[in-house]
Amino acid sequence: MLQRQKGFKIIGHRGYGPTPAALKTPENLPHLLPENSLAAFKYALDNGADGIECDVFLSADGVPMLIHDDEIEQHAAPAVAAAMAGKLVSKMTAAEVAAVDIGGGHRVPTLEALFELVFGYTDRRAIINLDIKDTTCVAAVCALMQKHAAVMAAHDVIVSSFNWDILRDFRARDADIMLVPAIKSRILFGEENIGPGYVPLVDYYQPAARGVLEELHREIRIAAYDTTTTDFKPALGAWAAAAGLGLQISTANNRVSAAGSDYKTLHHLRALAENGTVPYALIKVDEPDKVRAALG
């Protein structure tokens, strides 16, 4: 496939933003759609998002499930969280995982259910960005993509991971899949320049970082560089442009409202994409409709 997006794209981070903290405050649930739920994905797409980002873990019976952590208690609704203590998605069947209330009566969906939802949007080339942390799910995800290959050709599935060995495994199994490495802060800034919460203590990248990224591109043919908003510096845009690669920028693990977004960086990314400096720039935000409106 290796179809690259073009231009500036806004996708919904975990659908419509992280919600674990909201689960601890039940009164928030009517106002927030649980992260990685089909309802959150649909809301983002129905309100102008170009696509969605989600997280994948494999159930004990080999089904790719959409959840941010193996520890299911972190995403269970307050009424059932205690019963889920110590339970892992990787040790539960897909049916057991899907039975867990993740807030407001919503359930943990399968990746296949997401494919069926997104591929129904025939009015756009929708993006599904899979954030893969689970090393065991690669074969199952590839098999599912092969099963849906015909309809998937009208959309873009992008695989991202901080674990670059996972990307190597995907490339070994699929010559065409779009791979995007998520870049750890220590690679860009150096281990000694990272503070608490992975916040960089300097505003410049280490000279060796560019070579590390270029070598990975030579090895597995990537589509873009992916980093967080707090780690992005104009130098990364220049490196991407020189390599003919796109840019993907992620928000934080904690929910960031549209009002709290870094619009200076977002405007810069949009300019890079719209003037053709990079093939595409994709931002993952928690309130895609509101961010798009604020960007103008």
Apparent shape: globular
The radius of gyration computed from the alpha-carbon positions, rounded to a whole number of angstroms, is 18 Å
CATH 2nd-level architecture:
Alpha-Beta Barrel
- The low-pLDDT segments are none
Please tally the helical runs, counting DSSP H or I stretches of 4 or more residues.
Answer: 13
SS elements, strand count:
9
The main β sheet shows up as:
9 strands, mixed
Report the top-level CATH class.
Alpha Beta
The averaged pLDDT comes out at 95
What is the terminal-to-terminal distance?
32 Å
* Helix and strand pattern: EHHEEHHHEHHEHEHHEHEHEH
- The helix/strand class is alpha/beta
Going by CATH, the homologous superfamily would be Phosphatidylinositol (PI) phosphodiesterase
What is the CATH third-level topology name? Answer: TIM Barrel
How many distinct domains? Answer: 1
How much strand content do the residues show? Answer: 15-25%
Helix content: 25-40%
Q: Any key phrases for this structure?
A:
13 helices; alpha/beta; nine-stranded mixed sheet; TIM Barrel; 296 residues
Written overview of the protein:
It is a single chain. The chain has 296 residues and is of the alpha/beta class. It has one domain (7-295): TIM Barrel (Alpha-Beta Barrel). It has 13 helices and nine strands. Strands 1, 2, 3, 4, 5, 6, 7, 8 and 9 form a nine-stranded mixed beta sheet that branches. Strand 5 (156-161), helix 8 and strand 6 (178-181) form a beta-alpha-beta unit. Helix 2 runs parallel beside helix 5. The longest helix is centred in the last third of the chain and has 14 residues, at 207-220. The two termini are 32 Å apart. The model has no long low-confidence stretch (mean pLDDT 95).
